[in-house]
Amino acid sequence: MLELLSDIHRGLARTGILFFIALGLWALWFRFRSRPLDGSWYGAAAIGELLMVLEFLLGWVLYSQGLGENLARAFVHILYAVVAVITLPAAYLYLSRLKNENIKTILFAIVCFFLMEVIIRTRFVALV
Question: What total number of domains does the chain contain?
């Protein structure tokens, strides 16, 4: 059972990488068209956040079942996971106050690419 959960955990990480690449490119598309982000984009961002929360909770279950001992640097892996969970809501809280929609769109694209890199780095820390 733990092996299945571990496979799902890895699969969700890959999905998160691809999802945030697509979300970042979508934000750039809005910017190139000089349009503000719309409800569809924010809805997709909410789905991405739910994906990160699910990934974190699943990782926590695996860690509590003793699989954390297999990680060379479990604390760093968990730290990156926490960053992945809090980044998007923190960015939304800060960026929603900006008046310039063009800057907001670019910054959300950067946040999405940052999240992609955090997930890649989290996977790397887990494998080394």
Answer: 1
User: Cβ distance 27 to 41 under 8 Å?
Assistant: yes
| pTM, two decimal places | 0.91
Rounded Cα distance between 123 and 77, Å, is 8
CA 16 to each of CA 86, 88, 98: distance values in angstroms, whole numbers, following the listed order? 14, 13, 27
pLDDT digits (tens, 9 = 90+) for 38-90: 999 999 999 999 999 999 999 999 888 887 777 778 888 889 999 999 999 99
What is the rounded CA–CA span in Å between residue 46 and residue 38? Answer: 13
The answer to whether 51 and 91 have CB atoms below 8 angstroms apart is no
Domain range for 75? 2-127
Distance between CA atoms of residues 37 and 31, nearest Å: 8
- For 110-122, write each residue's pLDDT tens digit: 999 999 999 999 8
